[in-house]
Design a protein that fits this description.
single chain; about 280 residues; Nucleotidyltransferase, domain 5; 5-stranded mixed beta sheet; two-stranded antiparallel ribbon; 10 helices
């Protein structure tokens, strides 16, 4: 701005030609004349940089189109952008309706959509799963799906099995599915039965994280103990099939119906575990 004002000051003094002024200030002649013209039209404000934002958008959606989209959405609040677009194209094929993404943008500006939470992505486990031929070679862990007891309390059982014997090592209700409670249960189980060579889980918290190699605080602790942490592929529960099969039996035997309270539900889990121990494996 200072350079432009100096340029205009010298120009008004008529001490130099426009060409010489442009060479002196290191600008082209079209730029020099543009500064002069803008100064003459609006004064010093004309020397400010003008916004390059376009004054209009040739392909902007018309107000009438937006109103039609919002009106249909008000009739069908659960419909998404694609369904709204398909219905409007059917109702009025003569109109060139915008793309589904534009429908989504219009709904978003009107506050009619809920932003999708970004999914946690963990580094996939790259090694092939080893064969299990003896107890304590592999432990499988997971949270059985939550349910409510008779008094309405939420029940989240955490389960641990030995993959070779299918022995149910732990079936314990936790108040929170977090690092501290899972670690305490695992440490107690290891003191009682010894330390496994490997542990297999899914990719949820607290078993995995979004850092280097998908390590979490829990899995990092296992690694320091010399335990290999195997994580199944997302959407592939069959890779932990025996444990999932145990969950189905556990659900059939202990949750239909559920107990009245969490304490009584834990007793049902303990009874199921004793029956499994007697048979030497979780029944199929």
């Amino acid at each position: 701005m200072d350079q432009r004002l100096q340029f205009l000051s010298s120009y008004q003094k008529e001490e130099m030609s426009v060409s010489d002024l442009c060479r002196e200030f290191g600008v082209s002649r079209p730029t020099g004349y543009r500064w002069i013209n803008r100064y003459n039209e609006v004064g010093p404000e004309g020397l400010l940089d003008l916004s390059r934002k376009p004054h209009g958008c040739s392909h902007a959606t018309s107000e009438a189109t937006e109103n039609a989209i919002l009106a249909l959405r008000s009739r069908y609040p659960s419909w998404g952008a694609r369904k709204l677009k398909a219905r409007l194209e059917k109702l009025d094929p003569s109109v060139e309706w915008p793309s589904a993404s534009t429908f989504g943008n219009i709904l978003g500006r009107a506050g009619l959509t809920s932003p999708t939470k970004k999914k946690r992505r963990t580094t996939p486990y790259s090694e092939p799963f080893s064969e299990v031929t003896a107890p304590n070679q592999l432990w499988c862990m997971d949270f059985k799906g939550n349910f409510n007891t008779g008094d309405g309390a939420r029940c989240d059982p955490f389960t641990v099995t030995d993959a070779h014997s299918r022995y149910l090592i732990r079936c314990q209700i936790v108040s929170r599915m977090d690092f501290s409670q899972v670690r305490a249960i695992c440490e107690a189980a290891m003191r009682e039965y010894g330390m496994p060579a490997r542990i297999r889980t899914d990719n949820g918290a607290p078993f995995s994280g979004i850092g280097l190699l998908g390590l979490s605080k829990l899995s990092l602790g296992w690694m320091k103990m010399g335990i290999v942490h195997e994580r199944i592929q997302p959407g592939r529960p069959q890779q932990n099939g025996r444990h999932e099969r145990m969950h189905r039996t556990l659900k059939e035997d202990t949750t239909k119906p559920p107990a009245l309270t969490l304490r009584l539900q834990q007793k049902k889990f303990d009874q199921f575990r004793r029956c499994s121990t007697t048979s030497g494996r979780t029944k199929d």
